[in-house]
Write a structure and sequence with these properties.
Blueprint lengths: L2 E5 L5 H8 L2 E5 L10 E5 L6 H6 L5 E5 L8 H6 L3 E3 L6 H16 L2 H9 L2 H5 L12 E5 L3 H9 L6 E5 L9 E2 L3 H7 L2 E4 L13 H7 L4 E4 L8 H10 L4 E4 L10 H5 L3 E3 L8 H21 L13
Parallel strand pairs: 1-2, 1-3, 3-4, 4-5, 6-7, 6-9, 7-8, 9-10, 10-11, 11-12
This protein binds 1,4-dihydronicotinamide adenine dinucleotide and the ligand O=CC(=O)O.
The site of ligand LL5AMS7Z has 7 residues, from loops.
Length: 308
């Protein structure tokens, strides 16, 4: 029996090869909605509500990523559609990206690289000093799988890790139940919560001001978690020191103001984007679909679908 898979977003040649052995693959510009039983999609595009409604025989949505805020999981559960994602296999890579942004902000990596390339080093002498990353207090907003990996990777810099999550955990770090209070106590704040309504713009003007003129904000979660207009205002006025951002409110559109500011380091949503980690994520995304063909289950359902 042929199974019909709708592909939303890019996949790797390895993923395609394995999928083609089991599915006929359709693209968004040419498919029969009533024939589709499985969807593969990414964290950015997800599955919009109109599309989900039209896919009347849909059984599984396999997300090529861990965040699933772009998929209406409540509607999926109501319709008995299994939603799968790729937890854990990307923890270390995304944590490395967070550290990369943090270090680039502290040590002014982009400014100093430009200083050498422009000839300023030769023309003007030594570059201005930067700030040490040693012994900083770093707040983690969302101490889950990736948040814990970030905390682990901060150890060589002798950081004091503190955190704010939905609830206190059994970890050796100080818990803050109030995000603004945590920001006030921190040198740097790293956002790594899921997106969606419960975290929408929780990093607002008050939190940014509490982080302060010497503070650094790192966002590797979702653009929706930070109030981008408030962030631009704080960085421009000097109420916030630096920002390292992998995610933005309206990707791939990045406000010109953020691009013009000298105290930002900007990445094009590449938290997990290495050959090795994308291979592991791709394998799990495909495994989820193939397992469903075998026994009607997926390996890594999102928590809301665990009992379906
Ligand atoms: N930049 C990138 O390329 C990537 C971004 N991500 C983002 O990182 C997120 C986290 O991934 P994991 O660590 O695997 O998820 P997780 O579910 O293991 O951890 C999420 C943490 O956020 C906390 N949290 C949830 N809602 C909250 C709220 N309203 N206030 C405070 N804390 C809250 C949870 O308690 C949990 O500790 C993903 O959902 C995704 O949005 C993930 C991978 C790559
Ligand atoms: O943003 C990426 C993800 O895996 O979520």
């Amino acid at each position: 029996m042929t199974h019909h898979l709708l592909q939303i977003g890019g996949i790797t040649p390895d993923m395609r090869e394995r999928l083609e052995a089991a599915f006929t693959i359709y693209q968004l510009d040419d498919f029969d909605p009533t024939a589709i039983t499985h969807v593969i999609t990414n964290g950015h595009d997800g599955v919009n509500p109109e599309l989900m409604t039209s896919l009347i025989n849909l059984k599984v949505i396999s997300g090529y990523g861990v965040g699933y805020d772009a998929i209406d999981v409540t509607e999926a559960v109501r319709r008995n559609i299994l939603v799968a994602h790729t937890p854990n296999v990307l923890n270390q890579e995304v944590a490395t990206t967070a550290l990369l942004l943090l270090l680039a902000c502290y040590r002014e990596l982009l400014r100093d690289d430009a200083y050498v390339r422009s000839g300023d080093w030769q023309a003007k002498g030594n570059a201005p000093l930067t700030r040490s990353m040693d012994k900083q207090t770093v707040g983690i907003l969302g101490l889950g799988r990736i948040g814990q990996a970030i905390a682990n990777k901060l150890a060589p810099w002798d950081a004091t890790v503190v955190y704010h999550s939905r609830r206190k955990k059994d970890v050796p770090y100080r818990y803050f139940d109030n995000l603004t209070e945590m920001a006030r106590a921190c040198d740097a704040l790293i956002c790594i919560t899921p997106g969606g309504p419960s975290t929408h713009k929780i990093v607002n003007a008050e939190v940014l001001e509490a982080l302060g003129p010497h503070g650094t904000l790192i966002n590797v979660s979702r653009g929706s978690v930070v109030d981008e207009a408030a962030l631009i205002a704080a960085l421009t006025s000097g109420k916030l020191g630096w920002a390292g951002l992998d995610v933005f409110e309206a990707e791939p559109v990045v406000p010109q103001a953020l691009r013009d500011l000298p105290n930002t380091v900007l990445l094009p949503h590449v938290g997990s984007a290495t050959v090795e980690t994308r291979a592991a994520m791709g394998a799990l995304t495909v495994d989820n679909l193939l397992q469903h063909l075998k026994d009607g289950t997926v390996m890594t359902p999102v928590p809301e679908c665990a009992d379906l």
